[in-house]
Amino acid sequence: MLDIKIVNGLIVDGTGAKGFRADVGITGDRITEIGDLSGVEAKETLDVKGQVVCPGFVDGHTHSDMSLLYNHLSSSRIYDGVTTEVIGNCGIGVAPIRDEKKAELIKYLGTRLIGAIPVKLELPWNTMEEYLETVEKASPAVNVVPLVAQGAVRINEMGFEKGHPSPEQLARMRAEVKKAMEAGCAGISSGLMYMPGEYSDVEELAALSQEVAPYDSFYVSHIRSEGDYIFEALDEAIAIAEKGGTALHVSHLKLAGANVWGRAQEVFDKFDAAKAKGLDLTFDLYPYAKACTSLGSCMPPWTFEGGTDNMLERVKVPENQKRIIQEIKEGIPGWQNPIKTAGDWSRLVIATCYTEEGKWMLGRSIAELSQEVSKDPFTFVFDTLIQERGRVQVLCAVMDQHDIDTFISHPEAMIISDSMSLSTEGILSAGNPHPRAFGTHGYVLADYVRKRGVLTLEDAVRKMTMLPARRMRLVERGVLQKGWFADITIFDPETIQDMATYTNPKQYTRGISTVLVNGQFAMRDGKQTEMTSGRVLRKKVK
Q1: Fewest CB atoms less than 10 Å from the CB: which of 141, 221, 252, 337?
Q2: Are the CB atoms for 31 and 25 separated by under 8 Å?
């Protein structure tokens, strides 16, 4: 007897094949039958007439490393149909970290992974193994795939020291990467627009990537520039992967800034050339035209030397402020500055703040805010960074919709959210986050599929299930197939709708009726349950 029988649905299996009518049978945590199950008994039968039955969405790029510990229900994920998320992206991670370096990492993570969340950040672990054990004990609602973050590895060894690691330091960093891979990480990530990744070069990153190569894994990167220097940044990423002997995955691909809009085909040409030489290269993107980043990342790299506290002290000094303004206006070769990329202060909007005093700024542009307080926009930025201790996130309108449509239509494009799991209630409801934290997958199905027809239903599902699952080397997930794990999302293709907007982002997607994670109901009848059946999907070491 089946535990669950799903009948009368349109099966969109994740492979890109045309949808077909069939029933799905589940026993325990597995799909045990697909076909005509009218004569098969089940403990529970779900009639989903008019709805799509597909694999649970795999969000291949998230920053929920801490938020899933603060609220293991991962509500914004479940309501958006996500059953698996990948953490440790952009080189931003919470382990490995030895005790003497924790203070530096904690202050930095306050500007990146925590932002407006009203918590005292603590890291009661040292290794990736210990962190993953903590996640398992938290019993998350979704499956979790870990990456080891190069930024954490470097902070653990060098803090925010500028320059090259010594041979001894590099050897210890390589050993930490290997330990993380032995603990089950899926790959290594870097964020070369952020500290301390900005201080790392090809040789260092290739050496660390060599430690993941034996595990059939990959190097995933938030490349050094997505704007004026994107082609140089892609060359660097390709060189790192080639020298590291591993696959390359480019995070949240975009053309940021009017100077590079319309050049998507040149990006594809560069990818094709690298693949023709044998490189295993893939990419993902989110479906929105606005990015989100730390206001601190708008400061030149030299300001962060020694850590976040040093940056905050440096921006107080008038002479430093003059230098920063000049470098932002004139640019630094190879450095992508979000302020210059946006091109106008009205295109930079405060998303999250840390203090009560800062809440009046949420959802408003720097142009509007600085004018209201009669300050030059640069002075306003310096003062805000100091007041909020660097814990400020900004939305940046830097992309062109035509480029996004071009990228997302590529056969191998994967769709991700680049966000942390949040909630409409409790501590994870703070701030005015990017709507992608609540509505990414609903937005794709409502806008790119139903409204504008940029993607077919089957292709959109493939980009949100099989493709990311395959890149992460997930075993028996990402496709509805007999014998595979029962991670399943069921939705009405005519009514599914993201509700999250830039002005009111904390709204759950509507139109998803059912979400199963490992055969258990995380959502039923459109409401999240208390079931938390997610698992840490550790990569098996051969």
Answers
A1: 252
A2: yes
Alpha-helical regions (H) of 264-376: 264-276, 308-314, 318-330, 338-342, 366-372
- The reply to whether 336 and 454 lie within a common domain is no
Tens-binned pLDDT, residue by residue, of the chain (542 aa) = 999 999 999 999 999 999 999 999 999 999 999 999 999 999 999 999 999 999 999 999 999 999 999 999 999 999 999 999 999 999 999 999 999 999 999 988 988 777 668 888 999 999 999 999 999 999 999 999 999 999 999 999 999 999 999 999 999 999 999 999 999 999 999 999 988 999 999 999 999 999 999 999 999 999 999 999 999 999 999 999 999 999 999 999 999 999 999 999 999 999 999 999 999 999 999 999 999 888 888 899 899 888 888 999 999 999 999 999 999 888 888 788 888 888 889 999 998 888 888 889 988 999 999 999 999 999 999 999 999 888 888 999 999 999 999 999 999 999 999 999 999 999 999 888 999 999 999 999 999 999 999 999 999 999 999 999 999 999 999 999 999 999 999 999 999 999 999 989 999 999 999 999 999 999 999 999 999 999 999 998 76
Domain of residue 512, residue span: 2-55+477-528
Dihedral in degrees, nearest 10, Cα atoms 185, 190, 195, 198: 150
Q: 131 and 250 share a domain?
A: yes
> What is the crossing angle of helices 102-109 and 150-158, to 10°?
140
Domain end point (choices 395, 417, 447): 395
Residue pair 76/422 in contact (Cβ under 8 Å)? The answer is yes
Same-domain check for residues 170 and 208: yes
Dist CA 486 CA 488 (whole Å): 6
533 in any annotated domain: no
Are residues 199 and 108 part of one domain? yes
Decide if 153 contacts 96 (C-beta within 8 A): yes
Residue 141 lies in a domain: yes
> Which long-range contacts (C-beta less than 8 Å, at least 24 apart) are formed by 312-318?
312/385, 312/386, 312/389, 312/390, 315/382, 315/385, 315/386, 316/382, 316/386
Strands (E), 424-510: 488-491
Length of the chain: 542
In the chain, % helix, strand, coil (3-state, to 5) comes to: 40, 20, 40
Amino acid code (one letter) for 142: V
The domain that holds 17 is classified in CATH as 2.30.40.10
Looking at 395, 414, 448, the residue that finishes a domain is: 395
Tokens 């208390």 correspond to 530
Q: Within this chain, do residues 101 and 245 fall inside the same structural domain, yes or no?
A: yes
Give the CATH number, domain containing residue 454: 3.20.20.140
What's the rounded Cα separation, in Å, for the pair 39 and 3? 14
Interior angle at CA 457, CA 453 and CA 461, nearest 5 = 130
Structure tokens at 277: 């030489």
Cα distances from 287 to residues 52, 131, 525, in angstroms, run 21, 31, 27
